[in-house]
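Lecture notes, unit on binding sites. The following record was shown on slide 14. It pairs a sequence with iron/sulfur cluster.
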Amino acid sequence: MTEAKVNNAPMVEFIVDGKKCSAPRESSLLDFLLANGYDIPYLCHNPAVKPYGACRLCLVEVKNGRKTKLTTSCNYPILEGIEVFTNTEKVRRNRKMVMELLLARAPESKELRQMAKDRFGIDADKLPFEKNNGNKCILCGLCVRVCRELVGIEALSFAGRGEHKEAISPFHDVASTCIGCGACAVACPTNCIGLDQVITKRSLARWNRELPMKTCKRCGYAYAPMFQLEHFQNISSVPADFFDLCPDCRK
Ligand code: SF4
Ligand code: SF4
Ligand code: FES
């Protein structure tokens, strides 16, 4: 198996489940495994943003030299000569326990309950851990990273520590710099941001943010949040009246 060269890093050889592989040195092990058909569960990974290693679901075993250890694969850089085991009994047992812990942290997430049932046969009502009832967030950090790294806004952050840690708008107040693009809601694996749109208003319940929509001058369709269009205008050189029409009427 081979992958195209990325960022001109030299290719290195390594082994996955007994098969010889090659990939750019220090590229993400999880990206390689997913691209090559290995069935690895994951929740906090998105190749568009930096790895964070938060959910711990993407566990594999890696032998590097004489040491073999259980590790998250999304933030493990591929190195020459490593040997990777994706489906050992130890890997399966630990992934299942991680899934139970995640579900205990966010038992109200339908998406998480479904994944736990389908992939691990876990019954969300019979967990061996105490449940954090009412919660849907697994602290994967995707919302914070997508907002900061992709949208370039930094409307969100983490607050608190340990079991009190949360992904929040600043001081739990309105995320006043949020432009309403919805990227965080699309990225959230547990669907807990509460993006909603009622004709001329978009809301993001988790960030206490409500945004007026821009209405197309020609057809009257409310097609994008005003603040998002203002942001696009500020970072591009399009004329001020460019956004008067929706994309369909602009054609
Ligand atoms: S909707 Fe707001 S908080 Fe979410 S990614 Fe866009 S700007 Fe950031
Ligand atoms: S709100 Fe969603 S994306 Fe953000 S940390 Fe929680 S689960 Fe992850
Ligand atoms: S996907 Fe690797 S720790 Fe979450």
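Take-home: Residues 142-250 form one domain.
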